[in-house]
């Protein structure tokens, strides 16, 4: 099994949307027995709760139900996940630092990515934080993470010969 972890700050907006959309794409491609995913936040402000109602609403508009309960990134995640995918550069820095503190090592090349590394249309490196914004911002995040998910899935299929 290839294990993928999506990480943002609060684990109630961007990373649960990334997880839900990616999981949907994996199922559509018939790869659920080969790829599994989860999400976590660098901070624990919202631990235990469902995603923000606006994230759930935009996902529901596209037929995706978000059921994840927020959790904080833990030291075990560095051993348990093959890929850790950051929504923005601040998340990425946090992941690097926490990996060093937890394991004594920075993540190996090719294990940690910014999700927008997989976005051909990106002119910035971050999935913008929609928390203090309106529904249009959540729709925008949905479109970005779906686009990144499609291209990340193609990358995994090639990298692991899943085709
Ligand atoms: P997320 O959005 O990192 O995409 O889940 C946020 C959620 C909560 C907060 C900030 C961003 N907050 O400050 O509580």
What is the strand and helix layout of this fold?
Elements: E1 2-8, H1 14-28, E2 35-41, H2 53-61, H3 77-80, E3 83-86, H4 89-103, E4 112-114, H5 135-159
What compounds sit in this structure? 4-nitrophenyl phosphate
Number of domains: 1
- Low-confidence regions: none
Residues in helices, as a percent range:
40-55%
Measured on Cα atoms, how large is the radius of gyration?
A: 15 Å
SS content category: alpha/beta
Quantity of strands, as a count: 4
- DSSP helix count? 5
Terminus-to-terminus distance = 15 Å
Q: Could you name the CATH homologous superfamily?
A: Response regulator
CATH level 1 name: Alpha Beta
Provide structural commentary:
The chain contains five helices and four strands, in the order βαβααβαβα. 40% of the residues are buried. Helix 1 (14-28) packs across helix 5 (135-159) and helix 2 (53-61) packs across helix 5 (135-159). It has a four-stranded parallel sheet with strand order 2-1-3-4, sandwiched between helices. The mean pLDDT is 97. It has a single domain, classed as Response regulator (Rossmann fold, 3-Layer(aba) Sandwich). By secondary structure, the chain is an alpha/beta fold. It binds 4-nitrophenyl phosphate (4NP). The site of 4-nitrophenyl phosphate has 10 residues, from loops.
């Amino acid at each position: 099994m290839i294990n993928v972890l999506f990480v943002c700050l609060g684990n109630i907006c961007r990373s649960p949307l990334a997880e839900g959309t990616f999981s949907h794409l994996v199922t559509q491609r018939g790869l659920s027995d080969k790829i599994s995913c989860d999400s976590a936040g660098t901070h624990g402000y919202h631990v235990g709760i469902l995603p923000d109602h606006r994230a759930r609403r935009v996902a529901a508009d596209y037929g995706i139900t978000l059921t994840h309960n927020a959790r904080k990134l833990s030291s075990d995640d560095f051993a348990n996940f093959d890929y850790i995918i950051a929504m923005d550069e601040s998340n990425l820095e946090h992941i690097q630092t926490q990996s060093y503190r937890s394991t004594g090592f920075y993540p190996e090349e090719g294990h940690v990515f910014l999700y927008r590394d997989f976005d051909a249309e990106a002119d910035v490196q971050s999935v913008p934080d929609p928390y203090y914004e309106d529904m249009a911002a959540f729709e925008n995040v949905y479109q970005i993470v779906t686009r990144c998910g499609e291209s990340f899935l193609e990358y995994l299929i090639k990298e692991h010969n899943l085709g």
